[in-house]
């Protein structure tokens, strides 16, 4: 793709607390609650580019879901033939205009004109935070409010959860773990899950907080995921940990390959889910070549 004089395509990495947003994707004008993309595009428009602003988000997250490392690309052409922004300057400028919001740009790369944030991604990693021993929502430290799933009982069968998680690793038809939406007919349910692990976590203020709450983190890594796949896998694994589902039950659910087979009211809530990382080949993050910059 040949860029116009003064134009540049940027890949940005950004983080956000998703509690107050409709999700990461842009909400329509009539909708009161906006998506993270609405605020990102407004910040880019504040830089007064010549071109219309449109971000392509790499990884969709739903209402209430957070991110520590989502990404997106966009084109930016400055006025009066000014040269493209340096990456560090762009990060600072966008964060200046995002100041009222819990959204932050962490990095920016100037990339070739043909780069696409979604299709060039080679992996995505999600972490789901559990807090066991939360008998009432007020037991959760304020710094973790809306940032974990509070489970009433502290005892979890961790060994069984890990055995069940191991069944999910590899290439499978994950139809049973996807929720149905308008894109279902067009999405291949066969995915390769590179990682599904359960490790001890921590409260963000563990050193200063002394209630008997045990934090755990479930980590999932794949090139891509189906709609609500991570939250459904988490819900099933927690059910195993609480003795409500057996390890073989998870195997049977996976083999059913039917979204209707997934038990009702088992999907984990959105607030414990974090998109932590989107990865690319290093070669895709190189600066634009001369050809990309010429008109």
Detailed description of the structure:
It is a single chain. This protein is of the alpha+beta class and 295 residues long. The protein folds into two domains: 8-119, 2-Layer Sandwich (Alpha-Beta Plaits); 124-277, 2-Layer Sandwich (Alpha-Beta Plaits), CATH 3.30.70. 20% of the residues lie in helices and 26% in strands. The protein contains six helices and ten strands, in the order βαββαβββαβββααβα. Strands 1, 2, 3, 4, 5, 6, 7, 8, 9 and 10 form a ten-stranded mixed β-sheet that branches. The chain starts with 6 loop residues before the first strand and ends with a helix. The active site is at 62 (nucleophile). Residues 14-119, 164-280 form the Pseudouridine synthase I TruA alpha/beta domain. Keywords: Isomerase, tRNA processing. It is an enzyme of class 5 (isomerase).
Task: Please give a handful of descriptors for the protein shown.
single chain; 295 residues; alpha+beta; Alpha-Beta Plaits; 6 helices; tRNA pseudouridine synthase; RNA binding
Tally the beta strands: 10
State the separation between the terminal residues, measured CA to CA: 10 Å
The name of the CATH architecture of the largest domain is 2-Layer Sandwich
CATH H level of the largest domain: which superfamily? Answer: Pseudouridine synthase I, catalytic domain, C-terminal subdomain
Bin the strand percentage. Answer: 25-35%
Averaged pLDDT: 92
Uncertain regions spanning at least 5 consecutive residues = 288-295
List the secondary-structure elements in sequence, H or E: EHEEHEEEHEEEHHEH
Outline = globular
Number of structural domains: 2
In DSSP terms, counting alpha (H) and pi (I) runs of 4 or more, how many helices? 6
Share of helix, binned: 10-25%
Using the coordinates above, name the CATH class of the largest domain.
Alpha Beta
Q: What is Rg?
A: 21 Å
CATH topology of the largest domain: Alpha-Beta Plaits
The biggest sheet amounts to:
10 strands, mixed
Class by helix and strand content?
A: alpha+beta
Family: Belongs to the tRNA pseudouridine synthase TruA family.
GO molecular function: RNA binding; tRNA pseudouridine(38-40) synthase activity
Catalytic activity: a uridine in tRNA = a pseudouridine in tRNA; uridine(38/39/40) in tRNA = pseudouridine(38/39/40) in tRNA
Binding site for substrate: 126
